[in-house]
Design goal:
heterodimer, A: 352 residues, alpha+beta, Rossmann fold, six-stranded mixed sheet, five-stranded antiparallel sheet, B: 292 residues, mainly alpha, MetI-like fold, binds adenosine-5'-diphosphate, binds magnesium ion
């Protein structure tokens, strides 16, 4: 177990910079999830930590030791790959034991360690099978077992669940989280799925185009997104964004018509964008934000999502599950001032 | 009426299944016929080889399939002639060593070209590929001059050295290593294997079918090689089997019955090699099917 520090980490491929000065401190035992759209540099960051990719500049420390020039095997890390990377020609036992090849421990001790890990993953009965005789979830468990067997300081996961079907994914998500609680090791987990990030992470690192957008707990990134990208990336359906301009006294004229009174010291004349999550945008709530006609209803049982037409396109709001407004009905939607996020229209940054 | 309408689609369906049957049968018949002709064309030389090996010399030019007076005299003669054993052993040693070397060197180079990024990688690959376009007949003279300079004439090494690595094998292995996911290699790297171990322990078992195919090609190619062994060897004891067999008889009269007998005996190792490695190939295909 150990902490992990990334300092001014930069990666260039043939003169193209794909990672721009990444800074992050991961605490001992923390479960950190890197999330972001495909191509934003998550895997590259992870592979640099693992030692599979050269570091262009910057420093990586594991457990207080600079590892920049260490081989992967000397960094005290283990990695679980998207395609499991378990060897089809070896039994489960051999695959799990593969992580111990470079250890000098005597054979009985290694055997014991393999059994321990298999027990922890509930795979004792499967040790002598070949990977081709396992289900997708079981293969993933073998891959995790192979990483665990060495008891590394840091676990690295690169989208380990994306090859599983939705149900299995939910189940493995839970299993990995439980495993973390039991073993308590430091984990860096990469995914493009914000639900995975929200449900598993102690802290989320949101990335885009090789930059970190925000680092925070799931609650922080959800309730206090640092910018428009984070606000729309986290949460489904995505946050509604409505352009507006600040008038005197904190009143904001919206592009959809009407004004909304926002407290705080917003500079007069500034172009802003207000963001409201669908679950915070409710019919009849005050202050009112906009009016429009219901175009589509999506009943979800306990609630109904309604798509309300405005001059800026549809916004999504939440209505009652039992007696939602009719299609074609004109509704007034409002949101509690605490639930209205304000962003600078030019930079996209959140305005406090 | 309603009943008739219900029935009609069924009868239509029946008629429809009847109709295409005949052309399908004809197609099948033609296919069988083609296979039959192909099979005959491939089997005939072997049948003639066996038949000739059972004939007396005076019957050889009589192209009858069944000899008038079958004899195993030729077999006794060839097997009692000490030279045959020499040639057989020469061929076997040379083919085996060459096969092992090809399996190792071709896959080592193929793996490197496939999985490592280094400057000049592409050029090297193209250079190797381009040697495929040069026929053996053109290379024989430089090889001979080289062997002469180094004193390799009339030695095993002289016979073997041009074939210890082949461009074709390198290309084949490179293509097959493309099917080994990089994740496998990186996972092994994290687990502390060095690059040579990764190649041998992780990558090689995953391309076994290709290795088996390569082994068959190389073994057969060397077992039947003629031009170069003929040129590089001088003494009868250094002949390989094909070279030795062609020397049966004298200037005036080629002893076809003996050549065919030797050839018949010499097919035995190729059969064995094929039977052994074919199992690997089939198993490899089955394994690949189960994967993923
Ligand atoms: N080997 C490589 N050569 C050149 N560019 C690469 C290479 N690997 C990744 N990249 C680029 O780096 C960026 C980040 O890639 P990656 O870390 O794989 O993204 P993610 O894992 O977030 O989807 C992408 O724009 C990708 O095109
Ligand atoms: Mg990735």
């Amino acid at each position: 177990m150990a902490n992990l520090i990334l300092r001014d980490l930069v990666k260039t491929y043939d003169k193209t910079e794909v990672l721009h000065s990444i800074n992050l401190e991961v605490e001992d035992g923390e479960f950190v999830v890197f999330v972001g759209p495909s191509g934003c540099g998550k895997s590259t960051t992870l592979r640099m930590i693992a030692g599979l990719e050269e570091i262009t500049s910057g420093v990586i420390e594991i457990d207080g030791r600079v590892v920049n020039n260490l081989e992967p095997k000397d960094r005290d890390i283990a990695m679980v790959f998207q395609n499991y990377a378990i060897y089809p020609h070896m039994s489960v036992r051999k695959n799990i034991g593969f992580g111990l090849r470079s250890s000098n421990a005597p054979k009985p001790e290694k055997e014991k360690r393999i059994e321990e890990v298999a027990t922890l993953l509930g795979m004792n009965d499967l040790l002598d099978r070949k990977p081709s005789q396992l289900s997708g979830g079981q293969r993933q468990r073998v891959a995790i077992g192979r990483a665990m067997v060495r008891d590394p300081a840091v676990f690295l996961f690169d989208e380990p669940l994306s090859n599983l079907d939705a149900q299995l994914r939910t189940q493995m998500r839970l299993e990995i989280k439980k495993l973390h609680q039991r073993v308590g090791s430091t984990i860096v987990f990469v995914t493009h799925d914000q639900v995975e990030a929200m449900t598993m992470a102690d802290r989320i690192v949101i990335m885009k185009d090789g930059h970190i957008q925000q680092v925070g707990t799931p609650a922080e990134v959800y309730h206090a997104p640092a910018n428009i990208f984070v606000a729309t990336f986290i949460g489904a359906p995505a946050m509604n964004m409505i352009p507006g301009r600040v008038n005197g006294g904190g009143a904001v004229t919206l592009a959809t018509g009407g004004t909304v009174q926002l407290g705080g010291a917003l500079p007069e004349g500034r172009d802003i964008i207000i963001g409201i999550r669908p679950e915070d945008l409710l019919p009849g709530e005050t202050p009112g934000v906009l009016r429009g006609e219901v175009n589509v209803r999506e009943p979800l049982g306990h609630e109904t999502l309604i798509y309300v037409g405005t001059s800026e396109g549809d916004v999504i709001a939440k209505a009652d599950g039992r007696t939602p407004p009719e299609i074609g009905e004109v509704v007034s939607l409002g949101a509690h001032p605490d639930n209205i996020h304000v962003f600078d229209a030019a930079t996209g940054e959140a305005l406090a | 009426m309603a009943v008739a309408e219900q029935i009609r689609p069924t009868t239509d369906a029946l008629l429809k299944t009847e109709a295409p049957k005949r052309p399908r049968n004809l197609g099948q018949f033609l296919r069988w016929l083609l296979l039959f002709i192909g099979g005959i064309a491939m089997v005939m030389p072997i049948v003639y080889m066996l038949s000739t090996s059972l004939k007396w010399p005076h019957e050889v030019y009589n192209l009858k399939l069944i000899p008038d007076e079958p004899t195993i005299e030729n077999y006794t003669y060839v097997l009692e002639d000490g030279r045959f054993y020499w040639w057989f052993v020469n061929s076997l040693v040379i083919a085996l060593i060459t096969t092992v070397c090809n399996v190792i060197f071709d896959s080592l180079v193929g793996y490197t070209l496939c999985k490592f990024r280094f400057p000049g990688r592409y050029i090297i690959f193209i250079a190797i590929l381009s040697t495929l376009m040069i026929p053996t007949e053109m290379l024989v003279i430089p090889w001979y001059l080289m062997s002469q300079q180094f004193g390799w004439l009339d030695t095993y090494w002289g016979i073997m050295f041009p074939g210890l690595m082949t461009a074709f094998g390198t290309f084949l292995m490179k293509q097959f290593f493309e099917t080994v996911p990089d994740d496998f290699i990186e996972a092994a790297r994290i687990d502390g294997l060095n690059e040579l171990q990764i190649w041998w322990i992780v990558a090689m078992p995953l391309v076994k079918p290709a290795l088996a195919a390569l082994a068959i090609f190389v073994f057969l190619g060397n077992w039947t090689a003629f031009i170069w062994p003929l040129i590089v060897t001088n003494s009868v004891e250094m002949y390989t089997l094909p070279v030795g067999l062609s020397s049966f008889g004298d200037e005036a009269d080629v002893a076809w019955e003996l050549i065919m007998t030797g050839a018949a005996i010499s097919t035995i190792p190729t059969l064995i090699v094929f039977l052994i490695f074919q199992r690997f190939i089939i198993r490899g295909v089955v394994m690949a099917g189960l994967k993923g």
